[in-house]
């Protein structure tokens, strides 16, 4: 992880070093063809438009210049605030959206087209994007923040070392917490596409819970309560969790999504760019608005001779998150100032959790408020990181303005930015999808 100071450019390559054209072109090729898995010609005919149709779509898009941007929300798992920072950021953003739009009932789910979350970020995504009985999201952002604060001690507990505070309690208590909230809701019951990772010990590979997959096949539809358990099942203290899909055909042995994908931003971008059914006009990162929320970085005693396995897991997760941020920043380039925003404060030590757990939650909330007042830190192509003039709160406000602009643009747009698939009404059958719904304002 790059060191940060208040100077315009920090560490990395010397400020006088100029990257040659060949190196820049190599990085561009890597970004376009390998990093995010897209190029000019779709390779999967099942999940892409045909070449002829693609030419037609591109022609319409270039003629109208008004197909808009797909809005993506991504939430990290492992961090020093146990999800409180991301929840507080979303609460502030939702309040901003309500104020600027004039709609006191606006929800986060109304202003994003895709949500991806890992670990506690996956729990937040589930709370904010699962459909309630009234057809609206189960939780507002403020409600999700309150839930996390009230239930944090039921969901998380300190490990014996006191460093890794994300270990889950017994499965029965976890099932009760999430079962009371989600009941029998499944991935199909989300309002928008969601992506929530875990790591499957059976296949020894990341497993991505996806609404799109659930709508295609019941073999990939899981109960939301199980999804939340899987993505936050700590491998150090809680161990793996065995679960099956709704129809019993798919079985996984899951541990925390942060093991393989603590920052799900790259996975979310890849999903959108390759999902031509639901995002027909999205061909590059220039067609995206992405908000990526971290949960703070941990501080370790570098002089300590032995770091616990939990400590190494946290270091690995946070390091991987930083690498994803660097890669996504490279893909957006200089044009990503408004299109890609990353909120990840650094340099603040989280309060200890063993002395007084009830007080610690309040301390974490106060600490996250201070984090949001910090200057925002951006990754810079080939040059590490820099501190910008805007604070994290100001960045969220500016991004909220972009979300509202896109929402208003869709009201008068002829072409749909998003074409969401919807689940068949219950009782569900093996044919999970109904006709797609054209949505330029969803």
From TrEMBL:
It comes from the Eukaryota. This is Uncharacterized protein. It comes from Bauhinia variegata (Purple orchid tree).
């Amino acid at each position: 992880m790059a060191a940060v100071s208040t100077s315009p450019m920090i560490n990395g390559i010397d400020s006088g070093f100029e990257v040659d054209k060949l190196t820049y072109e190599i990085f561009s090729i890597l970004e376009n063809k390998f990093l995010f898995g897209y190029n000019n010609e779709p390779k999967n005919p099942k999940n892409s438009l045909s070449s002829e149709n693609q030419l037609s779509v591109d022609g319409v898009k270039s003629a109208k210049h008004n197909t808009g941007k797909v809005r993506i929300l991504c939430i990290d798992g492992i961090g020093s605030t146990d999800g409180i920072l991301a929840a507080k950021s979303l609460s502030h953003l939702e309040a901003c959206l309500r104020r600027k739009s004039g709609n006191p009932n606006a929800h986060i789910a109304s202003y994003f087209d895709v949500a991806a979350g890992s670990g506690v970020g996956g729990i937040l995504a589930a709370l904010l994007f699962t459909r309630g009985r009234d057809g609206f999201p189960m939780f507002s952002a403020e409600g999700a923040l309150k839930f996390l604060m009230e239930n944090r001690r039921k969901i998380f507990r300190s490990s014996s070392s006191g460093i890794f505070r994300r270990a889950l309690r017994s499965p029965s208590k976890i099932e009760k917490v999430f079962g009371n909230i989600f009941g029998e809701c499944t991935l199909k019951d989300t309002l928008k596409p969601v992506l929530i990772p875990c790591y499957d010990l059976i296949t020894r590979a990341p497993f991505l819970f996806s609404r799109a997959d659930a709508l295609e096949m019941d073999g990939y539809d899981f109960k939301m309560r199980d999804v939340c358990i899987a993505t936050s099942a700590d491998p150090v203290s809680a161990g793996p969790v065995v679960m099956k899909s709704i129809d019993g055909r798919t079985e996984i042995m899951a541990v925390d999504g942060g093991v393989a994908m603590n920052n799900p931003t790259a996975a979310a971008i890849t999903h959108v760019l390759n999902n031509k059914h639901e995002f027909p006009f999205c061909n590059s990162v220039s067609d995206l608005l992405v908000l990526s929320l971290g949960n703070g970085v941990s501080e370790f005693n570098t002089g300590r001779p032995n770091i616990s396995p939990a400590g190494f897991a946290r270091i690995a997760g946070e390091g991987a998150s930083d690498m994803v941020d660097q890669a996504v920043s490279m893909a957006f380039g200089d044009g990503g100032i408004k299109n890609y925003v990353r909120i990840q404060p650094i340099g603040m030590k989280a309060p200890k959790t063993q002395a007084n757990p009830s007080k610690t939650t309040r301390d974490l909330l106060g600490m996250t408020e201070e984090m949001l007042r910090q200057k925002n830190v951006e990754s810079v192509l080939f040059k590490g990181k820099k501190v910008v003039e805007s604070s994290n709160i100001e960045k969220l406000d500016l991004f909220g303005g972009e979300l509202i602009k896109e929402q208003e643009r869709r009201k008068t747009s002829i072409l749909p930015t998003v074409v969401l698939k919807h689940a068949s009404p219950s009782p569900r059958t093996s044919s999970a999808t109904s006709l797609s719904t054209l949505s330029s304002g969803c």
